[in-house]
TrEMBL record:
SUPFAM superfamilies: WD40 repeat-like (SSF50978). InterPro entries: JINGUBANG-like, WD40/YVTN_repeat-like_dom_sf, WD40_PAC1, WD40_repeat_dom_sf, WD40_rpt. Keywords: Repeat, WD repeat. It comes from Hibiscus syriacus (Rose of Sharon). This is Inactive purple acid phosphatase 1-like. It holds the Pfam family WD40. WD repeats lie at residues 178-217, 351-386.
């Protein structure tokens, strides 16, 4: 079901949303095109997208509400011209940008899909059943997203299971191979040929994309790992133990701990994002605060510089584009913040509309007029699409 909320007539504007030609589909030019969100925006004889007069978007009305999932929307990812949203193990939906049509649906495994990441022509999905699945984006068969492997791979498993030294003891007094996650895999990140996975089993694992081999398993935290991000050769892990840790190789073959970022005690760090230049690290906590640390890439040091009470309830997710930070919360709202001097955050807007906690956020690289699309997934089982000006300010006229 797609519910469309469109603005009233205003001065016409240009819509610029290039697609990847390698994935063009017949549905893009089908007879159904006249009822899609994109067609409604483009048809300026009916609607005209407000780029100069933004007052209509002061309340951030959603452009579309996509309600096809069977469960809570747990994660989002951009894959070329597609936006991927996931719920249960067999409930990953592929939406084609920018017209927001359902392109296909795929999936496998038990429980919730906790994370998605697209790398080249591959999509990696992390699952509640402690497995990472690898999907190949191909048109060689009807199944465009084809399952090609599961991590750890059979080859990796066979190369380790004979040696007792390759087994580690778990908290449940069981033993398992060090290449296996014992509990839910909650997050994924990638950087220069490597995939990183964080788990509720407190470990951070490093996988090589070329052969899907597990290279390292790090006892990273004292509690569940909730979020990962990789930037400028450093991997940041946010945990329920209240800490964000920075990991890097420093020219070596294995990762080591570079720094520990913490502020409030007895607070779960649910999400972490880093600015494009790697200087600013933001962590979102269960107490509703967003904390900022300033990093020094030369000395691998971080110092606390700012904090902001962003929400009345837990910050569940964040994403960044330029100087704008978006925060999704258990209070059902999305906060829009602009980064100022010394990492300070200035609030420029609030998005309302979700009927449940906001679990995931993703910004589209497609531009629409003077803004861009923001996607949000919630525990209300919906994927919602918003238009946001590039400076985040909807109060200008």
């Amino acid at each position: 079901m797609v519910l469309i909320t469109m603005p009233p007539m205003h001065e016409a504007a240009v819509l610029s949303t290039p697609l990847l030609s390698s994935f063009s589909t017949a549905s893009s030019s089908s007879s159904e095109a006249d009822d899609s969100p994109l067609a409604l925006i483009q048809d300026v004889t009916k609607y005209e997208f407000p780029c100069k007069s933004l007052r209509v978007f002061e309340s951030y009305k959603s452009l579309a509400v996509l309600s096809e999932h069977i469960g809570s929307v747990s994660c989002l990812a951009i894959c070329g011209e597609f936006i991927l949203s996931a719920s249960q193990g067999n409930d990953i939906i592929v939406w084609q940008q920018p017209d927001l049509r359902q392109f296909t649906k795929f999936g496998e495994g038990e429980g919730t899909v906790k994370a998605l990441v697209a790398v080249g022509s591959n999509v990696f999905t992390a699952h509640q059943d402690s497995r990472i699945r690898v999907w190949k984006v191909t048109r060689s068969s009807e199944n465009v997203f084809k399952l090609v492997n599961t991590l750890p791979t059979t080859k990796d498993y066979l190369g380790n299971f004979m040696k007792q030294s390759n087994y580690v003891e778990t908290q449940r007094n069981h033993k398992h191979l060090w290449i296996e996650h014992e509990d839910t895999i909650s997050c994924l990140a990638f950087y220069k040929g490597l995939i990183y996975s964080g788990s509720w089993d407190k470990t951070l694992k490093v996988w090589r994309i070329s052969d899907l081999k597990c290279l390292e398993s790090i006892e990273a935290h004292d509690d569940a790992i909730n979020s990962l991000v990789a930037r400028k050769g450093i991997v940041y892990s946010a945990s329920a133990d209240g800490k964000i840790k920075a990991w890097g190789t420093q020219g070596k073959t294995s990762h080591s701990l570079l720094g520990v970022l913490e502020n409030h005690k007895d607070v779960s760090m649910n999400t972490v994002v880093v600015s494009d230049n790697g200087k600013w690290v933001y962590g979102g906590g269960s107490d509703g605060y967003v904390t900022c640390w300033e990093g020094n890439a030369d000395s691998f040091t971080w110092k606390w510089v700012a904090e902001k009470k962003a929400h009345q309830m837990a910050v569940m997710c964040m994403c960044m584009v330029g100087d704008l930070l978006f925060t999704g919360s258990s209070d059902k709202t999305i906060g829009i913040w602009k980064r100022g001097a010394y990492g300070q955050l200035c609030k420029v807007g609030v998005i309302n509309g979700h009927e449940g906690p906001v679990k995931c956020l993703q910004v589209s690289p497609c531009t629409v007029g003077t803004g861009f699309m923001l996607y949000s997934g919630g525990l209300d089982r919906s994927l919602r699409v918003w238009w946001v000006p590039k400076d985040g300010d909807t109060t200008r006229t």
